[in-house]
Amino acid sequence: MEIRSITLFCEPDHPPAHVSAFLAATGDIFPVPVQTRRVALPPFPEWWSQATGDRDAAAQFAGHWRELGADYVSIGPVKLAHDSGWIDYLPALLGAADMLFASAEVASTGGEIDPGRARAIGHLIQEASTIQANGFGNLYFTALANCSPGSPFFPVAYHAGGPPAFALAIEGADLAVTAIREAQSLAGARRRLISAIETEAHALVKVATTLAEAQQVAFSGLDFSLAPFPTAEKSLAGALEALGLPWLGSHGSLFAAALVTETLDQADFPRCGFSGLMLPVLEDSVLAVRAGEGQVTIQDLLSYAAVCGVGLDTIPLPGETDREALAAILLDMAALACRLDKPLTARLMPLPGLEAGDPIHFDFPYFADSRVMPVAAAGVGGLIANAAPIELNPYRT
Fold first, then answer.
1. Residue 9 to residue 120: CA distance in whole angstroms
2. Which of 199, 135, 209 minimizes the C-alpha distance to 172?
3. Which residues are within 8 A (CB) of 59 and not within 5 positions of it... i.e. 6 or more apart?
4. Strand residue runs (E) in the chain
């Protein structure tokens, strides 16, 4: 297990000396490795000057935070309440530096879904895919549905405003792998995983509480998600298959995802963000293989999102996927988020020059080899295409 990120939430004009001191103080104080130190700011349309909304200004802005010790910075989302014109700034901002992340809402935390905004975001995803030849522009962007501030994982992270706070994003898939492989029953796997999570969380919270007191920054909790890393011992898909699935994507996969997520819910720790099961295609070595084999589809991943966390993440798509097809996928994700009253995101990655089934390889340690996934969705039309923003209420029992 590792800490994927120590994320500081603060205002863009928070005193630089305090930011630098806090990030420096995180040092080697935690009992597990810390991969990155990040800063998440409030939604950028609320503080970014239109006069400086260009690539050079964004590069200078990124350099400022890098000097303070931040590895990555989230400038927050374009929300439904903001003018959609702010979305037009994002290609330049995302292309200015390899450390700026951003997002945009398809659905608000109040249950409003905007089909027009979905198409605008689909167009942005298309445009961002060409920022870098390998399609990595969309690594730094995600679409949001029903996502509140305070999640320490990127790109979803953003600050609610006000006093600073920090949270820890956990990369804990290996805990599930070990608990399941050493268990003799489902109940035993559950007990082992709960115990492992609570033991690790207790140690982390103890250190985080001391850090919070010393630096006068509130500790807002752990996003103890079972996030994977692209090695066999840290594959969440591998953990699910170890429960007894012939392969992830076969019938029974939804049950396995629900069981592990519900186990996380039982664990006792101060939680924030998703605190759930994560299935990012390119970040999980087993899932990347299953997606490449065609055993796991986008529709499968949407069904798993109904019982676990995050949604659609690092999905490799054909480079020519049009914005209408992208918008249709985003609407499905948003519908799940609103009807189930849970946060979901979609990080879709059209890869220039590649078609469905083409092999993909990145010189990037966080990504596994896979193949481009086909897009079954066509663009929606009729009443949906022409709809104004509409509220979709949670399911009522």
1. 28
2. 199
3. 96, 97
4. 2-9, 34-40, 72-78, 100-107, 112-113, 141-145, 165-171, 218-223, 311-318, 344-351, 359-360, 370-371, 390-391
Rounded-to-integer distance, Cα 82 and Cα 48, Å: 13
CATH number at 35 reads 3.20.70.20
Residue 396 forms part of a structural domain: no
Q: What range defines the domain where residue 314 resides?
A: 2-385
Neighbours of 237 (CB within 10 A): 27
Per-residue confidence of the chain (397 residues) as pLDDT tens digits?
Answer: 999 999 999 999 999 999 999 999 999 999 999 999 999 999 999 999 865 558 888 999 999 999 999 999 999 999 999 999 999 999 989 988 899 999 999 999 999 999 999 999 999 999 999 999 889 999 999 999 999 999 999 999 999 999 999 999 999 999 999 999 999 999 999 999 999 999 999 999 999 999 999 999 999 999 999 999 999 999 999 999 999 999 999 999 999 999 999 999 999 999 999 999 999 999 999 999 999 999 999 999 999 999 998 899 999 999 999 999 999 999 999 999 999 999 999 999 999 999 999 999 999 999 999 999 999 867 888 999 888 999 999 998 6
DSSP string of 347-393, one letter each residue? EEEEETT--TT-EE--S-TT---EEPPP-------HHHHTPPPEE-P
- How far, in Å, are 191, 344, 393 from residue 242 at the CA level? 16, 26, 37
CB 277 within 8 A of CB 285: no
Q: How many residues does the chain have?
A: 397
Distance of CA 247 to the CA centre of its chain: 24
Could you give the angle at the alpha carbon of 164 between the alpha carbons of 337 and 170, nearest 5°?
Answer: 55
Coil vs helix vs strand at 215: helix
Cα three-residue angle 118-106-291, rounded to 5 degrees: 75
Q: Decide if 392 is inside a domain.
A: no
Residue 255 token pair: 């049950």
Q: Are 234 and 177 in contact (CB under 8 A)?
A: yes
- The total number of structural domains in the chain stands at 1
Residue 106 maps to a domain: yes
Tokens 């730094």 belong to residue: 140
Query: Rounded to a whole number, what is the largest CA-CA distance in the chain?
Result: 62
Q: E strand or H helix at 266, and its extent?
A: helix 253-266
pTM over 0.85, yes/no: yes
